[in-house]
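pls ignore typos typing on phone
5-O-phosphono-beta-D-ribofuranose + seq
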Amino acid sequence: MAAGSSGPSPLVAVIMGSKSDWETMRQAGEVLSQFEIPHECRVLSAHRTPAETARYVEEAESRGFEVIIAAAGGAAHLAGVCAAHTILPVLGVPMESASLKGLDSLLSTVQMPVGIPVGTLAIGAPGARNAALLAVAILAGSRPELREKLRRFRAEQREKVLRETLG
Ligand code: RP5
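k done
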């Protein structure tokens, strides 16, 4: 079941290996919504639904997607599998895992052998939010109005930091 897909055709696919990743990955969706980027979020697993994952990613380009964000935990091969099935940019978000705190997810997402790249972000929520911001930056390359929004976002962030007072 997909979420966040109402309105115009989605440009960003946010895929996660399990519903248990959603609490973290909803934050990627929130950032994309903040920038008014149509997106689709859904659970697809490299090992539990391998055929459906491959089909979804193979069809992504013809459906108009421009970026895929793939999040998984543990032996996190989802982003690499996605990247193997498309030439769209794939951004990997390692999920924090119970046993190894996401170090397992980070290493299995980031250490792609040469030829099939995955742009890997930080573990957990910072990675989810930054993956969305990076997707916005990728889309902004051909969309001047989005570039302006990104500039405004950076300016607001800067102003907020400069306004901080320490009690
Ligand atoms: C991965 O295994 C998922 O991405 C999730 O982070 C992890 C645990 O999944 P569940 O056992 O919670 O479904 O496939």
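Residues 16-18, 20-21, 45, 72-74, 95 surround 5-O-phosphono-beta-D-ribofuranose (CB under 6 Å). The mean pLDDT is 96. more later
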